[in-house]
Amino acid sequence: MKTLKSDFVDSKTGRHLLDALYEKFAKPQLHDTLKPHNPSIYIRHQSGELVHGYLVEKVFEDCKTGFYAEARSSIYANATPVLVIRGYGSWYPLDRVLEDTPDVFVARLQRQLKAAESSGAVDWIKQQFERGNPADIIGESLGGKVAQQIAAKYPDYIRSTVTFNSLGVAEKLAQNSTAIHVFHYFTLGERYAFWANGGDYIPGTIFVISQRGNNCCYKIEEWIVRIARFEGKFRKRRAIVVMLAQFLLLNRHNAIVLNKKKPVVVQIDRTQLQSFRKNSFS
């Protein structure tokens, strides 16, 4: 068996070395939905199934809140296990994964955190730590919010936390978090993550990612998103523009970026994140 390096941070860029792989795990991949062994958490997998070099050890779910997560262990020796937490809703066309309750968006509520505890997901995290191989926790959107809540409450048991276009958590929780090795990735022009609940983020390394940066195509997309707010005599035209804008924003929220050829990845600080969030409401 091959052995992977234990160092998981790129010394030059500050990126998590597994961020591209984790993006595949955490985000929906509609173009590959019907392909066997699709690694996305939005596809229901079974315990014992081999997915992209990882064995699905356990599946955790809670029908009351819609919480769904999979514990995965790499087939490589000494590699880090990972808990992948699903975001809101289900993309699977044939077998509906549990539906989330609407209030899970609220930043201060911890219903899915409690579901992670009661379903055994947190116990699995503790078991990995006791075995000397602490796990990574990852999630997109709502899944990122739950990942942050777990990391903030159980920081000593986790190797790293990686989120993609995550919803925020309660401001007090973010301020008091002692979790280390936290990585937040936001797509350039992201809106949904910030519109959802206006929450804060536990401290960590923050990146803005895109396929080609602030180029001409991106500027056109932004123009469409902004004119979608027109009213009055533009109402009929606006309905079409709104649909197009929603499609563009949904694509940004879920698009695979880090796995594209030469993605643009820019590290920002918390002050810049606040500016980035504020711009998303304009």
Outline the structure in words.
With 282 residues, the protein is an alpha/beta fold. The protein has two domains: 19-211 and 256-279, 3-Layer(aba) Sandwich (Rossmann fold), CATH 3.40.50.1820; 213-254, no CATH class. It contains nine helices and nine strands. A nine-stranded mixed beta sheet has the order 1-2-3-4-5-6-7-8-9, with helices on both faces. Helix 7 crosses helix 8. The protein is globular, with a radius of gyration of 19 Å.
SSE blueprint:
Elements: H1 19-26, E1 50-51, E2 54-62, E3 67-74, E4 82-85, H2 111-118, H3 121-130, E5 135-140, H4 142-153, E6 158-164, H5 171-176, E7 182-187, H6 192-197, E8 205-210, H7 216-227, H8 235-254, E9 264-268, H9 270-279
Parallel strand pairs: 4-5, 5-6, 6-7, 7-8
Antiparallel strand pairs: 1-2, 2-3, 3-4, 8-9
